[in-house]
Amino acid sequence: MDSSTNGVEEPSPWDELYNINFMPSELFLKFRKEIQGIRVALNMEVYNAPINECQAKLIFKPLTPEWRWKVIYEPIHHDVRILSKKIPLTRFLNLQVGVGHSFKMHATGWKWKLTTCLGGDGVSRIRNKTSVGLFPGFDLRFGWRADYVLPELTGGLGTGEPMFNMQSGRLQASLDRVEAILTHSDAD
């Protein structure tokens, strides 16, 4: 008897339930120089997906804790932005605001963004960054995410459902970004 006729669903193969992608879609090379309490950085950003694109950014960021902003200039797009640091609203919710000007379009505007490391579209999501200091002045940072659905156990008695049923969870994880960060600090 065919399993589709009696209402029992065939279990999914393991390769459909769990997928881990180790090919990053973003590669960053960041050069940083700290000068009198300000970090000057040149970022070379390569995006693999959905289209291949390369961007350069020049960033000025005060290192003192009371200054909570940074200036970003994108020479290819002729854009300049002033962004706040992420302001923690709760343990898992952050707010970031910014003002920008496009010299190409002769336009000025502002944006805000609420971000979290949790949540997704219909599934649970964890997004995080992990940094590894290889030696002084050279760090690697990995941006990764995991979308998951936890396994579900159900059952019933006298309802026409099986007494015990298990739906396998799903996991789709990916390494989204790899950053190589070179920092030069003046020794006092």
TrEMBL record:
InterPro entries: DUF7781. Residues 13-184 form the DUF7781 domain. This is Uncharacterized protein LOC101509224. It holds the Pfam family DUF7781. PANTHER family: OBP3-RESPONSIVE PROTEIN 4 (ORG4).
